Amino acid sequence: MNGLSDPTMPRPRLDPASFQERLLAWFDQHGRKNLPWQQAISPYRVWLSETMLQQTQVATVIPYFQAFTESFPTVEALAAAPIDEVLRHWAGLGYYARARNLHKAAQRIAELGGFPDTLEGLMALPGIGQSTAGAILSIAFNNSHPILDGNVKRVLTRLNAIGGWPGQSQVSKSLWALSAELTPSVRAAEYTQAIMDLGATLCTRSKPLCLACPVSADCQAYRQGNVSAYPSRKPPKTLPIKACFLLLLYTPDQRIYLEKRPPTGIWGGLWSLPEFAALNAAEDWCLSRNLLIKQRHSLASKRHTFSHYHLDYTPLLVQIENPTNNVMEAEQALWYNSAQISGLGLPAPIKTLLQQFNTDY
DNA sequence: AAAACGGGGAA
DNA sequence: TTCCCAGTTTT
Q1: Is-catalytic flag, A50?
Q2: Residue A8: what pLDDT?
Q3: What is the pLDDT confidence band of residue A3, given thresholds at 50, 70 and 90?
Q4: Looking at the keywords, is Iron-sulfur present (predicted)?
Q5: Closest nucleotide (CA of A57 to C1')?
Q6: A153 beta carbon < 7 A from strand B?
């Protein structure tokens, strides 16, 4: 036990002034200060770089930023440019709605006669939310405003061992509160750059360099030896539900109609029951084959869960009079003796269904 | 193969 | 309010 991970150790109170001091001292010594958007700092250049960096790594952004600012050196130039020209400069960065927002916002800023210098004014522009607005205000205007981009979320969830997915509103709320608490009123611009830098270069998603971190003494996740647990992952989204009818066609002598599934996709190449999206599609299928239906009823629906969706299937039991071979379709279908189902490659839920059918009928 | 990224807009 | 999405890169 190295003491660092002893959960019974009392938590030292996080002191914002001390945190800021160590972070800024680290930034002074190790921070990145030569990135293109850190030169000739202006609201326009900060806004543009923040927008580009939302989705892309620094190294990728640099040439785009340079080409973009060369063609559109000011927000007025951007506003005056045709949208096609703007999109052409964005090509390859993805999220093209952002280029359109950028252009739209530039036109509004031009109409206003300059950049808004308030949170509300900035957030009223398309494509600028609270975090981007905070970055512009702190970096370009040196006003004290918190930000909460992906890097800062990672730093702060680790710092206070804040569990739960940051996209959750309650978690996001505590992160904003912590970000605000830690943002100093002096050196706001440098602080904002510093905490983003820390997240980008030391407090990385994987293999964080905690031994080089200036604030590891404040870091609850580090003390717990649990840094990689933060931030919590986005919960897997609820799976979509697909529904179908499975036709269990059987003869008086207990033979069952099976079809070979196409080689790719779900249950590729396995033998299974004919599958229909709708009841009348199943009926049509029987009618078109001139099957004489002796009796029919459906069983209760069941659910089978795949990695990416739920399949709710309703078995349709249809007994036919004539065990003909006119439903045979080359090598793709067969009548199978229901007492010997184990010899074929059957999907698990189909196998279960057939076993149940065997027992009950 | 899956997660991450910040904001907009649909539900 | 909450949920879902966009495109590309990284893991």
Answers
A1: yes
A2: 57
A3: very low
A4: yes
A5: C9
A6: yes
Domains and CATH numbers, chain A: 16-229 (1.10.340.30), 241-360 (3.90.79.10)
Distance from C-alpha of A285 to C-alpha of A296, rounded to nearest angstrom: 14
Three-class secondary structure assignment of A216-270: HHHCHHHHCCCHHHCCCCCCCCCCCEEEEEEEEEECCCCEEEEEECCCCCCCCCC
DSSP secondary structure of A27-68: HHHH----SGGGSS--HHHHHHHHHHHTTS-HHHHHHHHHHH
* Portion of chain A with pLDDT greater than 90, in percent: 52
Q: How confident is the model at residue A9 (pLDDT cuts 50, 70, 90)?
A: low
Q: Is the CB of A236 under 7 A from strand B?
A: yes
Report pLDDT digits (tens) over A45-100.
999 999 999 878 888 889 899 999 999 999 999 999 998 899 888 888 888 888 88
Distance, Å, A82 CA → B4 C1': 32
- A1 band by pLDDT with thresholds 50, 70 and 90: very low
Query: Measured between alpha carbons, how far is residue A261 from residues A54, A81, A216, A233, A333 in Å?
Result: 44, 55, 57, 36, 9
Inter-residue contact A96 to A90 (CB < 8 Å): yes
Of A50, A190, A259, A275, the catalytic one is A50
Nucleotides of C under 7 A from a protein CB: 1-2, 4, 6-11
**Both structure tokens of A55:** 């989705």
State the nucleotide closest to A206 in CA–C1' terms: C11
pLDDT digits 0-9 by tens, A216-251: 999 999 999 999 889 988 876 666 677 789 999 998
Residue nearest to nucleotide C8 (CA to C1'): A94
